[in-house]
Design goal:
alpha+beta; about 45% strand; 5-stranded antiparallel β-sheet; about 90 residues; single chain
Length: about 90
Amino acid sequence: MTENQEVEKKMMSIVAEDGSVEEVEVILAFEFKDTKKEYVIYTKNEKDDNDNITVYVSHVDRSSGEPKLLGVEDEEEWSRIKDVLRELSKSE
């Protein structure tokens, strides 16, 4: 990729519990084949105190037809997701 080429950002809208809508940038969407669970890693391009961009991970629940983003509460799931994040950070 040359300096002048821009990578097209994938954006999605998320609706908060209070009904407000926010545009976020999708970093990666993936599924674990064995569990058939989908996840999305996204950012609001916020920076923490160390100037790192904050990322969020959510489980995508499509059981009601309309996709919903849910938190990840299972420790084993978190461990697997962290492995994906480590691989992602190596490739950048």
